[in-house]
Amino acid sequence: MLSEGGSFMKGMAMGGIFCLGLSLFGSFSPATEHGPGEHHHHHVKAPSKDELTRLSDGRVLELVNQVRVSCIIMVQPKILVYWATALDTWSKHCDKAVFYTSESSKALEAVDLNEKDDWARLCKALKHAYENAGDLRWFFVAKATTFAIIENLKHLVLAKDPEQPFYLGNAMKSGELEYVAYESGIVLSYEALKRLVNVLEDEEKCPERGHALWAMSEDKQLAVCLKYTGVFAENGEDSHGKGLFNSKSVDSLITDSMRDNPTNVVEGCCSDLAVTFNEMSPNQMQVMMFGVYRLRPYGHDFHDLLVFQPPEGSDND
User: Which pLDDT score, from 0 to 100, does residue 302 have?
Assistant: First the structure.
């Protein structure tokens, strides 16, 4: 039997090993495979009004018609009310919206992946979206608890080439690993998704089920897999540098701004062209839908230079 002193020393040693493991994990940087035409910036900005005015009408129309978004929405029967709300609200503005579930539900239609593991389920959903992409070249991955304004997403990527590897949203950092927060929504270009699907076939680099001593969240695992292919997390911003992907609700962001920017609450809150919000109840999502798409001040013209038409056959607002 170990003495009390021996037990203490053993505990100290085990604790030291664990801390070393965490330190190594934080600085983990897989080797990357760079291809031609890589981009290395970490801030992706939406085009400014001045940039848009320099484009010909024909070029603007061409870009607007090219930017089409496939929405990959992850759901579970236990959050059925969020599932139903996403179906009834913002997902109608996607050019294609597919719900992926952990198990089938009689109430709502979705692709049943029959998979309990969150990371494995996300991998299967991304593979399915890629295999059924058709002519869609932008992919938006979100949970049903996220609220998205798809037209603002289209504005962000309007002049970006989907044949380049874009992986963007609310970029975060954990140790040396940069990743896009899942709760705020994740945007992938066709090239980034193609590379991801390819590396998912390599069990050593990107196992479908983690083999680590502790589990990583899905968004961090996604970043690790993409990093192997030379694709890095980038922060989506408006032309003034404000983040477009929010991990909080509008209510929370305004409350924070009232505390931090009491003399200019609206300006300090969030971008006018925000793409996502989170932590909203289903009722708040319905209110948000009304505010974004229906409520208008009479006689006020926003002079938008772009018009994104609703998807054909859509009954969106």
Answer: 67
Q: Measuring CA to CA, how many Å separate 160 from each of 72, 131, 223, 304?
A: 20, 22, 21, 19
Sign of the alpha-carbon torsion through 262, 268, 270, 271:
positive
User: What's the confidence (pLDDT) of residue 212?
Assistant: 52
pLDDT of residue 211: 55
* Average pLDDT per block of 10 residues along the chain, 317 residues long: 42 41 42 47 85 89 92 92 95 96 84 92 97 97 97 95 97 95 98 97 82 75 96 96 95 95 91 96 96 87 72 68
In this prediction the pTM is 0.85
What number of CA atoms fall less than 13 Å from residue 5's CA on the CB side?
0
Tokens encoding 264? 């200019």
163-188 exposure pattern, b = at least 16 Cβ within 10 A, e = fewer: eebbbbbbbbeeeebbbbbbbbbbbb
d(CA 232, CA 178): 7
- The answer to whether 170 touches 245, Cβ cutoff 8 Å, is yes
pLDDT at 17: 39
Helix axes 218-228, 118-131, angle to 10 degrees: 50
Nearest CA to 103 out of 62, 144, 74 is that of 74
d(CA 51, CA 61): 15
pLDDT at 163: 97
Q: What is the pLDDT of residue 35?
A: 47
